[in-house]
Amino acid sequence: MSLKDDAVFLDQMNQSSSVFEMVFNVSQQARKLAEDSGNVLTHKEALTYAARGIKVDMEQFSAVNDFETKYINEQFCYIDDHDIKKSVMESFRKSKKSKSLRFVYIGITSKSKMARVRVLTRMLYYKLLK
Asked: Which of 18, 34, 74, 101 is deepest in the core (most CB within 10 A)?
């Protein structure tokens, strides 16, 4: 952390009535950032982002690796419905993160399309994760 970049945080800390509480809150935010990123974001980086108030896009720390993405995209070439593709991909991400099957329906209301999302997500989950 450079002193120039963190002057705002240091000023806030100097003006704070409870320095301990401020540091504690920043450390809690940093811990949450690191955990939400699956510890891809190091604690040092998370502390920097939390202290500076930088918003982090968690999508960049997607748990889906390159092999899984390529495999899923190969399977998607047979699917024409864009909503099903989005739903299956999001369902796979959430399932991988939670280590159990999760289903997300983005723009889908039809029961038959919901069933298709569940079947495709199960196929990918058991093929790539189990």
From this structure: 34
For residue range 84-106, list pLDDT tens digits in order: 999 999 999 888 877 789 999 99
Q: How many residues make up the chain in this entry? A: 130
Side chain identity at residue 104, one-letter code: V
65 with 96: CB under 8 angstroms? no
**Using CA atoms, how far apart are residues 51 and 77, in angstroms rounded to an integer?**
44
In 3-state terms the chain splits into helix, strand, coil percentages (rounded to 5) of 65, 0, 35
DSSP 55: -
Q: State CA 14 to chain mean position distance.
A: 34
Name the residue among 59, 75, 58, 79 with its Cα closest to residue 67: 75
Structure tokens at 89: 């991909």
Is residue 120 classed exposed, middle or buried when 0-12, 13-18 and 19+ CB atoms within 10 A define those classes? buried
Measured between alpha carbons, how far is 111 from 115 in angstroms, rounded to an integer?
A: 6
